[in-house]
Amino acid sequence: MRVFYSIREVSALLKEPETTLRYWEDEFPESIKPTRNERGVRFYKEEDVNAIRLIQYFVRDCRLTLDGVRKKLKNNQESAVKQAKVVLRLKNIKSELLALSEALSEVESIP
Fold first, then answer.
1. What fold does the segment set 5-108 form as a domain?
2. Domain map of the chain by residue range?
3. What are phi and psi of 64, to 5 degrees?
4. What number of CA atoms fall less than 13 Å from residue 12's CA on the CB side?
5. Of 32, 41, 55, 111, which is the most exposed, with the fewest CB atoms less than 10 Å away?
C-alpha cells in the first residue's frame, strides 16, 4: 500500500476527472485534506482516497446532491461508510464474475 497518491493517480483509480476531485476537495474540506509540496502539488493519503470514494458513492450511485452528501456524512458517517464498503465489494464481485464469464465463453468457443 502506498503512502501518497498524486491527483492524477487518484483520478485514474476512481475514474473521476481531476477537476471533480478539486471541486470535491473545496466542498468537503473536513473530509478531504491532501498535503501539498512546496510547489503546491496535491498528494492524497489513503484516508483522503477513501473519503473521495464515499463522496463518489453518494453522488454517483445514490444520486445525492452535495448538500445531501453533507447531511449523510454529518448524521451517520459510520453507517454510510459501511454501506459504501458493501456496495464497493459487490461491484468488485460483479466485475470478477463478468471476467470469469468472459473467460468461460472463450474456453467454450475453442474447438
1. Multidrug-efflux Transporter Regulator; Chain: A; Domain 2 (1.10.1660)
2. 5-108
3. -85, 150
4. 5
5. 111
